[in-house]
Amino acid sequence: MSFIGELVECCKGLADAPRGFPLVPRYQHIGVRRRPYGDYLVFYRVNEAAERIEVLHVFNGARDYEAILFPES
User: Cβ distance 14 to 34 under 8 Å?
Assistant: First the structure.
């Protein structure tokens, strides 16, 4: 299986335990969670109303994700 295929399966697997990974510090109030996958981080949140997982971004773990996901206003 290709890396992309593995990553897709990883994201689909979040539905099995949507709260199985920790909330991102400082962003708990909007429900953003982070799941590591190899050298990457999958950021997602649980959408209660729609009963689904929303994958927000996938970044290489070496990136400054806070500056990209949560820029200062």
Answer: no
